[in-house]
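Chapter review: from sequence to fold.
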Amino acid sequence: MFDPVTASLAVLSPGVGGQSAVTVVPAAGDLRLIPLPGKATALTGDREGTVYASTRGGYFRVDLRAGTASQVEVEGQHDTDFTAIARRADGKLVLGSADGAVYTLSSDTAVGGSVKIFARVDALVAQGNTTFVLDRGQTSVTTISASGTDADHALRAGEGATTMAADSAGRVLVADTRGDELLVFGSDPLILRQRYPVRDAPYGLAGSSKLAWVSQTAINSVVGYDLATGIPVEKVRYRTVQQPNSLAFDEASGTLYVVSGSGAGVQVIAGAAEVR
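The token string follows.
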């Protein structure tokens, strides 16, 4: 994920000894590695210099400026395998688990509400105080109420949805990798607004104010689509590093970051949204 306050990219990856690490990629200067005190599964942030990584029993709080990480245990969830994490507009963290539950925290450590109806929680994003849940097993997208105690709406997401991202226009993007499609959901209420074919195993996603970014992992490419009309329109396309699994976008500089899932590194595309 990209943190605008520190103007840096935070990348979650395996560390040493079975633990994880966050690599900080600044706009200028050397990379910094922040070891985590355990194994992490997913990453979110407050866009103000702090990122959070889900782990068994709770989450890690990572200070990007100080280069430090601490573990926070969620009360009563010592053995829960947390697989996903998101931060709502009100600052509350939401955690998803391998056994299909979503926990909305009322404080740093206390659970304020939970919903357990999923096969597994594979990804979480937030629009305002509404949480979106991606369940790959059921290939579905579900919204969780602001109270964290109810599932408001649910829709099937293509033939095999794998990843999800939110954008600044209130939309939620979903990659249907098996069905070779980009799905665009409206958030209030949950509705499938656009459905567009994207060949060659779409996977990585990032939203921005101008374009929706989708990677094609079968051919190592990334495409920027304009969603302003009823049909996504391709505006730019780039070749990428091998296995472009993760994307992030810096609105201030117009830089797109492409992170390899096979260890091929991070590709930095400056002025990515400019039509060439």
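Two observations follow directly from the output. The two ends are 26 Å apart (CA to CA). The mean pLDDT is 97.
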